[in-house]
């Protein structure tokens, strides 16, 4: 390769790189717009660390998902079971402990929500239909902060009916209105 072509090759490579960055920025904005704004959490809880590095299952923290309508957000006491005296030098752990000391509980913001007239049971979906958490919530085990990865949503984070109906059709699940609407 001739060295006189090197500046041209570098310029083309730089333009391509900038183009890729711009495309990724546009796509990410559309994803965020499509699924609604992300709630700001009081503590950056890393699912990646807890699931991939520590090997925790979804049900360890969201134990009600197989027993109840709601998957529930874990109580602060569950966090303290592991973190009391462990990883005390990590800034987010310090932040978490300070919030628990001040308020008793962490006020997590919901990431997914259904409208009041909708009946949705985590138990029905996880135990009876045997749907993996990731099918609705996306690859949470690879998320440093939980985001709305599927289900569509309005700007308030509500699941969209069309997304649910498509899944019911694909799985042969009931589609009568009374199945999901109160």
Give a quick account of the main beta sheet: strands, pairing sense, barrel closure: none
The percentage of residues in β strands lies in: under 5%
Radius of gyration: 21 Å
Question: Low-confidence runs (pLDDT<50, min 5 residues)?
Answer: none
Output mean pLDDT: 83
Q: Which structural class best describes the helix and strand composition?
A: mainly alpha
H-E string? HHHHHHHHH
Query: Please, how many helices?
Result: 9
* Approximate shape: flat
- Helix proportion range: 40-55%
| Distance between the ends | 71 Å
Structure in a nutshell:
By secondary structure, this protein is mainly alpha-helical.
Q: What would your notes on this structure say?
A:
With 182 residues, the protein is an all-alpha fold. It contains 9 helices and no strands. The protein has helices spanning 6-34, 47-53, 58-61, 76-83, 91-103, 122-128, 133-137, 161-171, 177-180. The longest helix has 29 residues, at 6-34. It is flat. The protein starts with 5 loop residues before the first helix and ends with a helix. The model has no long low-confidence stretch (mean pLDDT 83).
């Amino acid at each position: 390769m001739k060295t006189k072509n090197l500046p041209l090759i570098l310029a083309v490579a730089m333009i391509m790189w900038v183009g890729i960055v711009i495309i990724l920025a546009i796509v990410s904005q559309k994803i965020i717009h499509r699924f609604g704004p992300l709630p700001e959490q009081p503590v950056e809880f890393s699912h990646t660390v807890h699931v991939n590095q520590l090997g925790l299952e979804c049900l360890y923290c969201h134990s009600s998902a197989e027993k109840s309508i709601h998957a529930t957000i874990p109580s602060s006491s569950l966090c303290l079971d592991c973190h009391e005296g462990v990883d005390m030098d990590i800034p987010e752990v310090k932040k978490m402990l300070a919030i628990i000391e001040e308020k008793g509980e962490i006020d997590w913001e919901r990431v997914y929500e259904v409208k009041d007239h909708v009946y949705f049971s985590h138990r029905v979906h996880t135990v009876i239909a045997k749907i993996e958490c990731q099918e609705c919530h996306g690859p949470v085990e690879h998320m440093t902060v939980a985001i709305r990865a599927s289900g569509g949503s309005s700007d308030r984070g509500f699941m969209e009916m069309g997304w649910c109906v498509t899944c019911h059709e694909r799985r042969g699940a009931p589609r009568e209105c009374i199945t999901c609407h109160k």
